[in-house]
Amino acid sequence: MQEPAEKKIALELLETEQAYVNRLHLLDQVFYTELMKEAKNGKTVPEEVVKMIFSNISSIYQFHAKFFLPELQKRMEDWSCNPRIGDVIQKLAPFLKMYGEYVKNFDKAVELITVWSEKSPPFQDLIADIQKKKACANLTLQHHMLEPVQRIPRYELLLKDYVRKLPPESPDRDDAEKALEMIFMVAKHSNAAIAEMERLQNLWVVYQRLGLEDDIVDPSNELIKEGPIQKISTRNNSTSEKYLFLFNNMLLYCVPKVIHVGAEFQVHLRINVDSMKVRELNDTQFPHTFLVSGKQRTLELQAR
Q: How far apart are CA 137 and CA 120, in angstroms?
């Protein structure tokens, strides 16, 4: 008799989970443990750096090795009398939110490995030695570290397939659909974590270009648009190059600095968006012009 399609997918889930736990073991119990041991001896890099590289990999490993994998194994052994996995995944899915932290930290972790490999040859040598072990299968530390980032999307694909192949009358249908919804939310949670990290990084770069002025640096700000603009001087009918940063709550009118030491721009005027008025002008001499008025001042600007 041929195995039903949904059982094949459930078995694939179990097999990939076993391989995944081995990968997590390698990351946590081999790489992290050995690098930490050397860091404590003061031979390679500061302990803090090792912790930052591996983020919360220990919690992820413990969860999969002690809970997720054993629960799946138990369920697959009982498949003939209880053919379902939806309830198991539903029960454990909320814990997968811990991936948000790991995923958010991933780019920084890879960058730290590169930077410290150049700074500390003993650190580089130790990683190279571990990578020679059979368990590493000739793959780099960075390659192994990518696996947890890809795991949640993998669950989502397998579970989608599982739900699709379930017969309509299957006792697992409701639970499996709920489980898929939960995994989908977890994937969204981890994507949101990446998006938020990127937003904050981009914001920080903008603040550095503006010279890190205290009253401007605020992590809750959102940059909407930035770009060069011409300021029109009505006194002598000329234009000069300026630069605008539009945030959700303020418009910064800046002057590019000739010498880029530290900041790239100097903030000349800050207009709060809630009291700002914008009006288009029909000027034949200067096309694409508009007025921006705040409480203190009105600017006549020309776009490209």
A: 25
Q: Which residue has the tokens 């302990």?
A: 47
Judge residue 188's burial from the number of C-beta atoms within 10 Å of its C-beta, 0-12 exposed, 13-18 middle, 19 or more buried. exposed
Residue 101 to residues 77, 154, 157, 188, 231: CA-CA distances in angstroms? 33, 18, 22, 13, 45
Amino acid at 297: R
Q: Is the pTM of this model over 0.90?
A: no
- Dihedral angle at the C-alpha atoms of 287, 288, 293, 296, nearest 10 degrees? -60
Q: Which two tokens stand for residue 252?
A: 């910064």
Per-position DSSP letters for 233-300, written without gaps between them: ETTTTEEEEEEEEEESSEEEEEEE-SS-SS-SEEEEEEEEGGG-EEEE---SSSSSEEEEE-SS-EEE
**How confident is the model over 149-192, as pLDDT tens digits?**
999 999 999 999 999 999 988 999 999 999 999 999 988 888 88
Question: What is the pairing mode between strands 250-256 and 277-280?
Answer: unpaired
Q: Which two tokens stand for residue 71?
A: 């629960």
CA dihedral 258, 261, 263, 269 (to 10 degrees): -40
For the chain, which domains are there? 5-190 (1.20.900.10), 223-302 (2.30.29.30)
Please list, residue by residue across 215-242, b when 16 or more beta carbons sit within 10 angstroms of its beta carbon and e when fewer do: ebeeeebeeeeeeebbbbeeeeeeeeeb
